[in-house]
């Protein structure tokens, strides 16, 4: 709301910073809350549902907000987002009952927890690699698929649809086969990037761009599910640390990809994404954090 009526650039920046802080807090608790609502052994499925909602919101919200901004101005678009957020808060207040507080370990113990270290390392590797390429996806499409303008939107729509399908498949298997699902996600990202690098033509490159969405959609699910699985008694604080690692990966990936774009070396960004997928797959293969815990028997 403050952003919509910001009189100066400084006020707008301050409003964005406050919104960003709230965004980080939201993502640090939403998956653990969803897991508690669904019950034990369903953390992965709960996380998949959350990210499916995020994907649907991205597909439709981005187009609606862009239309509002183009026709009625960006302040109107911001007001619409503020109204949607207020309505969502009201619906949550009316439909989600209070939950008992969970006992969490002190912060330093969470940060230094060796059981979570492989998850944080995988997060940094995988997210950095993915966003090195994804941040500049339209430039990649122009270079490898030879599409610009409106046709790019069609390919991005196909990309988003593939992401939703990927979430459905990953959500179905993540609780029963967490390591296998994580390996498909990490190795799948690397495979799509390698195909994109060596695609024989625009059709193959376009297919790689669309297929890329499926493992990309699983990144947040497999990582968040691993956090919930390892830190059962302290999910909120552990998720907060994981979100920090995720945000660092986004920033680092965008910066590395930007260097490639600035130096006319866009394939370097794709190579970074492939390397991130391959190295994170190796961590997943060796780490017990991505193995289903004893006693977990999720219902189908």
From TrEMBL:
All copies of the Major facilitator superfamily (MFS) profile domain together span 1-292
Q: Where in the cell is it found?
A: Cell membrane
- Transmembrane regions listed in the UniProt entry: 12-34, 46-68, 74-96, 117-141, 153-170, 182-199, 205-228, 240-259, 265-285
Q: Which Pfam families match?
A: MFS_1
InterPro entries in the record, alphabetically? Answer: MFS, MFS_dom, MFS_Efflux_Transporters, MFS_trans_sf
Q: Which UniProt keywords apply?
A: Cell membrane, Membrane, Transmembrane, Transmembrane helix
- For this UniProt entry, which residues form the secretion signal? none
The record gives the membrane topology as: Multi-pass membrane protein
Output this protein's name: Major facilitator superfamily (MFS) profile domain-containing protein
